[in-house]
């Protein structure tokens, strides 16, 4: 297959500017929350943020991973932050997001200008080995109260009432914690609204990713990174849920009109885990071969919530109220909310790499993938766990697969020239040639 001249129409995403604006607004709101008498909390992109949302409409969060990924784009500031964390005594092989966040906190510098904003409390989930230690250090340094929710109850396919109760009971404890930490009364109506918004956001993101099954793909992964990120910021917010609905309509329209993300699409790839954020141009390099990355389990399911559809395909999980289940009280909301999050595909492979291999092979089949690029990401132990077992499973299924070493947040671990050479060799294996500019 030789990469051909443009064979599909393309056009920029109309909602691109709005996505950028919403992201910028989120970080500014966090920085300025105190001027308006609001509340600030810090935790992970996987924190169940509908709980703090029950404290009021002036509650703002700083989710650590997307913040650190944003810093990683600024190679100079990222290195400054990691140097500060290492000077404090933290090892270089720890999560690079965690080191970037810690370094900025110790330097008292915020990526979006001014001093590093101090949270009023920490509210955090625990599934990855770094998560609780990350915010334990934050709480100790900033001298703020902290709460940790253990969601490590095993794969969703083995779910029992006892396991679900274990997480739901902790969420009830979390409600007590946020009331005490903020001095505010918890509002069940606001909480239920936030739970519904989160379900809308995460199901809809999965629906959007499912639209990429068609040829040509309406979205490419580099673009998708700037879109799914809104769910990692505040998935329980009205603005996020509404944006995802709007985006779904636009991408559906692109599919109907045959609008391609990569006009010369000739080969479809899939990646895995976070990319090296300071070298996203690698995706544009792929396009010179007519290659489009249709996404990855990471992009689809870090925040997307999925289910098996009646026709056997993978799509966005059906919303409870569409199945006649009403959410009118705190206990129902808490239990459904716990169940919703525990079904998250990206949590499943923490227990067994075979679960991840099955999901990756499913994406390869349903999204018509020709080859797989695995990032051996030293910056994230959680999402890289079992990756070589995944590689073996993909190769065994007869799918061409390449690996490259790197780090999502620490550019010192990434060799651009070597990676480009590996991509060239892989493209040759797929029978692709670079297109003349």
TrEMBL record:
<dbReference type="InterPro" id="IPR010327">
    <property type="entry name" value="FldB/FldC_alpha/beta"/>
</dbReference>
<keyword id="KW-0411">Iron-sulfur</keyword>
<keyword id="KW-0479">Metal-binding</keyword>
<dbReference type="GO" id="GO:0046872">
    <property type="term" value="F:metal ion binding"/>
</dbReference>
<dbReference type="Pfam" id="PF06050">
    <property type="entry name" value="HGD-D"/>
</dbReference>
<protein>
    <submittedName>
        <fullName>Benzoyl-CoA reductase subunit B</fullName>
    </submittedName>
</protein>
<comment type="similarity">
    <text>Belongs to the FldB/FldC dehydratase alpha/beta subunit family.</text>
</comment>
<dbReference type="GO" id="GO:0051536">
    <property type="term" value="F:iron-sulfur cluster binding"/>
</dbReference>
<keyword id="KW-0408">Iron</keyword>
<dbReference type="InterPro" id="IPR017604">
    <property type="entry name" value="Benzoyl-CoA_Rdtase_bzd_osu"/>
</dbReference>
